[in-house]
Amino acid sequence: MSDHYLRTGVFLAPFHALDENPTLAIDRDMELVEHLDRLNYHEAWIGEHHSGGFEIIACPEMFIAAAAQRTRHIRLGTGVVSLPYHHPFTLASRMMQLDHMTRGRAMFGVGPGALVYDAEKIGLKAGDQRRRMAESLECLVELMQGRSVTRTTDWFTCQEAQLQLAPYSQPMMDMAVACSRSPVGAEASGKHGIGMISIGGTSDEALAAHARNWAIHCESAAMSGQTPNRSKWRITTFAHVAETREKARADMAYGLEKFARYFTDVATFPVIPPGIADPVEYLTSLGLACIGTPDDCIAHFDRLWKGSQGGFGAVLLLAHNWADWEATKHSYELMARYVHPHIQRQSNGLRVKAYDDATAKRGTAGEESKDAVLKEIDRYNAAKGIAPGGKAW
Known about the structure:
By secondary structure, the protein is α/β, with parallel strands linked by helices. It is built from 14 helices and eleven strands. The model has no long low-confidence stretch (mean pLDDT 95).
């Protein structure tokens, strides 16, 4: 991957076990974003969920507004806002305000709503979610571009709706659509010329599905006169690293079982099917996760790049809390120190070249330099009347 550059970030649902203090858990999410900012990660995407008990941030915009005050450069996205739950005009107004408050660091990720229990609690049928997302997105893109929108659907009306703020970001706020198993997100993101976030695993089968969705994105873009841009394509994956594979696997005893139980009991699709004797081996052997060393992580990201069939712009780590807090922070640090240089155009390449050049010249230029120093000492000693080999001071 020496010629390629991947931005790095997290996709923060977040996931917190039921025995955790929720107040402290949200504080820790904030601390994680601050930690990633210091480590030069590029992006953090914050989810919206209202039920299920495990994913406890309900308003990503609120979290982002606070995080923007505590960080310097990391970009902060809604990952994602569930469009069928909101009127597009008021949602666009909130996001435009956030664009200004963050000085352009906010990003606008959208989707139909992945947690079916959220929709059920507001009387929304699962069969209507994707249609409503598409209808809302049509209005949102126009509104975020500063245009006036008049449109009536069976669930919202816009009557000469136009935002009162122009975008801080030029030409408009960075937007992306979550894309999992269905092609809806790929079609919508291509149609509007915005980014795509691939969610739903990184097994060989899942990577092939992501590549097919990118092809759909490109087809949709061509039909709408848009130009696809692979740098706007983000792929999510799981990773946890330590100094050794044994340590990384041992770290999983803290929280992997609780995480897997949530996806079996509540979420739509289990991450680890029931009856798997060795969950860590299952996740790593299928390529769903990297649980190992920084070198293992480099190989994992390289596999994602190849599986994308042409490259993508950013790899987002699904924040999972499989390890305890200290091991989790250490994992992100190890990746920043030892993995990121390899996936960001070999950013140590010139340093290595300079080191090798100096090493190769040690026997010539180095010896010449040493001889020059000794001659200057002899010159000084001679001027002071000190015999060669004597002390000058």
